[in-house]
Amino acid sequence: MAETQRKETILSGMQPSGALHIGNFEGALANWVRLQNDYWMFCCIVDWHALTGSWRDTRAIKDQIFLMAVDWLAAGLDPEKCAIFIQSDVKEHAELHLLFSMLITVPTLTRLPTYQEKKDSLDSYGFLGYPVLQAADICLYAANKVPVGKDQEKHIWLAADLAKRFNATYKKTLVEPEALFTEVPVMPGNDNRKMSKSYDNHIPIEYTDKQTEKRVKSYFTDPKKLRQGDPGNPDTCPVFLLHKVYSDNPEAEVAPDCRSGALGCVDCKLKLSARLNERLRPIRDRRAELVKRPDDVWDILQVGAGRARTRAESVMDKVRSAMKINYRKKKK
């Protein structure tokens, strides 16, 4: 679909952390795949953001970018429908970040919840200015909406506020973005905490069927259900939460037998493993093919960067003009 046929623009981004897990897929990526049919989408691997925590050792970032791009494509992001690219390949991100940094105070940034949560372990300006760069990422593409979870609401507010402040200070130039909230399924890890690589409680998309089954078998269940025949409470069980995502009708197929004791935890986990592997099999098959063609993946990222630069250059021309800092006109 041509850009002119789409009503609005979306900017989505993830820090490169290597291969993704099912929490990343269900929490964000699956939604992006749906949205690409209705919006003009820019999907950005934000490698500069990753430096806030890994600036001392950057050797892994290239491989992490590649594996993330592979998972995005395997999951169904279509480079014909959306621009898939690396943040640092579009230098205008840094330029707009610099200009935005003049429009915001340090106390505003230090009050943001994400800063307060991590200020004791991350104290660089890069971390403090992370939301400003994120605002530049969004406004650079005239994004109308940004699909995020509720935990990112303040950052989208900041992007809209910076766009509004710019428009009021100079002239109306930038689109003021809105958060696009979607219902995100709860994806617990095997220790009943939020699924995360840092906890090593996750299920990677790249796992084999056997690895997936082994990880699912390690999940905590209802602590009061010690053996088959004991009644269980699916409402407190992380395995049942995953059944809600991957089973067709868990309230009818799983919950009654769990409550009565007819369904043991081992059999319940095997049912979940089968459904999960069935869901992931086509993604894993595409992933295996893409890993064999690294040049094709990097080419897709380069083409996406070219499309992103076209939009970014257009927006930045307007920004410089509004600020009266386009000192030399480009030659035609």
Share of β-strand residues: 5-15%
Helical proportion, percent range: 40-55%
CATH topology of the largest domain: Rossmann fold
The description of the largest β-sheet is: 3 strands, parallel
How are helices and strands ordered from N to C?
EHEHHEHHHHHEHEHHHHHH
Distance between the termini: 30 Å
Widest beta sheet: strand line-up: 1-2-3
Category by helix and strand content: mainly alpha
Number of helical runs?
Answer: 15
Tell me the number of structural domains: 2
User: What CATH architecture label of the largest domain applies?
Assistant: 3-Layer(aba) Sandwich
What is the strand tally? 5
Quick summary of this structure?
This protein has 15 helices and five strands. The chain is mainly alpha-helical and 332 residues long. The chain has two domains: 3-186 and 294-323, HUPs (Rossmann fold, 3-Layer(aba) Sandwich), CATH 3.40.50; 197-288, Tyrosyl-Transfer RNA Synthetase.
Tell me about this structure:
The protein has 332 residues and is mainly α. It folds into two domains: 3-186 and 294-323, Rossmann fold (3-Layer(aba) Sandwich), CATH 3.40.50; 197-288, Tyrosyl-Transfer RNA Synthetase (Orthogonal Bundle). It is built from 15 helices and five strands. The chain has a three-stranded parallel beta sheet with strand order 1-2-3. A two-stranded parallel ribbon has the order 4-5. Helix 1 links the parallel strand 1 and strand 2 (40-45). Helix 4 packs across helix 8 (130-139) and helix 10 runs antiparallel to helix 14. The two termini are 30 Å apart.
